[in-house]
Design a protein that fits this description.
With 154 residues, this protein is mainly α. It is 51% helix and 3% strand.
Length: 154
């Protein structure tokens, strides 16, 4: 988070506060951008766990929402978390009605009101991937903004 020109690290307390914005909420009550991201996460995980191409699974959803620019950073983020993540995230099946804790953590991180900090995502992934994950999150936020799907400020 940027505060008076000083870059502060993303604290555990801040992450936990963002999780409570989403955990156990019904997907139907999320904004369009939040709902699209949750469903894309679920589609990606379901395809990858079945040995199918996750990009093929998320492309129709991204195209339907004019988010072509989000495909590459979203796939990079999910693949990096799957391979080099420091924590194991739990994702719901595509038909699950409520947001799971893992989805809430990731959604809260992606949509935080602070700019992505290049060194602030070291709690998510191993060191060599931190900067690229920050860039992917910034690209996702930019794509959401361009498509008019930025979530409401909470």
């Amino acid at each position: 988070m940027l505060f008076w020109g000083i870059v502060l690290r993303d604290s555990k307390a801040m992450r936990e506060r963002r999780v409570y914005l989403y955990v156990d909420r019904t997907v139907a009550h999320l904004s369009e951008g939040e709902r699209m991201l949750i469903l894309a996460m679920r589609d990606w995980v379901a395809a990858a766990s079945r040995g199918r191409c996750p990009v093929d699974a998320i492309t129709p959803r991204m195209l339907a929402h004019r988010l072509v620019g989000a495909l590459e950073p979203f796939h990079f983020l999910m693949a990096t978390l799957a391979r080099h993540g420091r924590s194991r995230f739990e994702f719901g099946c595509p038909c699950q009605r409520r947001v799971s804790e893992g989805e809430a953590v990731l959604l809260g991180t992606l949509l935080a009101d602070s700019p992505p900090v290049r060194t602030g995502h070291d709690w998510l992934v191993d060191g060599p991937y931190v900067a690229r994950v920050g860039e992917a999150i910034a690209a996702l936020r930019a794509a959401l903004a361009l498509s008019g799907m930025s979530p409401p400020v909470r």
